[in-house]
Amino acid sequence: MTQDEPPVPAYLKDFAKVLKEKGARAYLDAAPSPMLVLLGLARQLRDGPTGEKTTVATSLNEELEASALVGRVFFVAKAVAGSPGPVSLGRTSETDVHIPEYSISKRHCEILRRESGWAIRDTGSTNGTELDGEKLVSGLEAPLVGGETLVLGRFAFRFDTPQTLLERLRARD
Length: 173
Hints:
Number of strands: 14
CATH topology: Tumour Suppressor Smad4
Structural class: alpha+beta
CATH architecture: Sandwich
Order of helices and strands: EHHEEEHEEEEEEEEEEH
Strand order of the largest sheet: 1-5-2-14-13-10-11
Shape: globular
CATH class: Mainly Beta
Largest sheet: 7 strands, antiparallel
Helix content: 10-25%
Radius of gyration: 16 Å
């Protein structure tokens, strides 16, 4: 990986290992940007009687399949280092953060850097974006500080800054 390439998704356990074996400085070097940590399957979607998406309880098989992804880390970073604008998240490789999942829209939401920290904005996604249990209004920004739960499509993620994840990992030990 060259300096211009975005970080490759890793797993939470990899960051815990770096922190334990090499210390906080090495951890912070390995975690250069905020990240989304996949927490698991939040819900299942199906077509309703009129074609709209309906939320139903998740099945055990889906939960087992999703459990293999728990702890996966997606770095919130521009695909092209230094390019202006928000970080786009979606299921296509044309977004900065590519999450290949059918319930996530092609261009689902954006994460923006603000003077006061970070913010998230839904970009008109089909299944919506939730922040700590509240559905976001498309086009409106909501602040992020680290530790919030986001639901994109069927999956729940935690938004962490390098510092909030460092604190979380230290608390686990």
